[in-house]
Design goal:
Number of helices: 2
Distance between the termini: 27 Å
Mean pLDDT: 84
Helix content: 10-25%
CATH superfamily: endopeptidase domain like (from Nostoc punctiforme)
Largest sheet: 6 strands, antiparallel
CATH architecture: Alpha-Beta Complex
Strand content: 25-35%
Structural class: alpha+beta
């Protein structure tokens, strides 16, 4: 993992937001909702909400579409681990399918929202995620 950044001070503003399936506000959000909120507030990038593409009961294959086909518009580019910086999106597998995402905020750390937990910082090298890393992408326009 690259050491191209320090943990940004804005991270604390996103800690403890309750999980809510398909949530898109500070009142509650899911992993994609957190991505859209961070990108809008910190990078001034408005991402699609994808609310019509999945729901809380969506099978992993449907969520895989969101992360791969759906992420073609806007344009996302792969990032090598050595080039990860604050704001890079990390894609993670659940049950073998890429169906979770977070925002990299420090060397080896992501900010994410996870069912059953408020938004938090987790190490991507920890026991829960280290074998489920699907890759990194960055927004490159669209």
């Amino acid at each position: 993992m690259g050491n191209n950044f320090e943990t940004p001070p804005w991270v604390r503003d996103y800690l403890g937001i309750p999980f809510k399936a398909q949530g898109r506000t500070r009142g509650g959000l899911d992993c994609w909702g957190l991505i859209t909120l961070v990108y809008l507030e910190q990078f001034y990038i408005e991402l699609p909400d994808y609310l019509d593409h999945y729901d809380a009961e969506s099978p992993p294959a449907q969520l895989k579409w969101l992360f791969f086909s759906g992420l073609q518009e806007p344009v996302w580019s792969p990032v090598e681990p050595a080039d990860v910086e604050a704001g890079t999106m990390v894609l993670l597998r659940i049950f073998g399918q890429p169906s979770h995402c977070g925002v990299m905020i420090g060397p080896g750390e992501m900010l994410h929202s996870w069912k059953g937990s408020d938004s938090c910082v987790s190490p991507i090298g920890g026991t829960r995620w280290r074998h489920n890393l699907a890759g990194f992408v960055k927004y490159s326009g669209g």
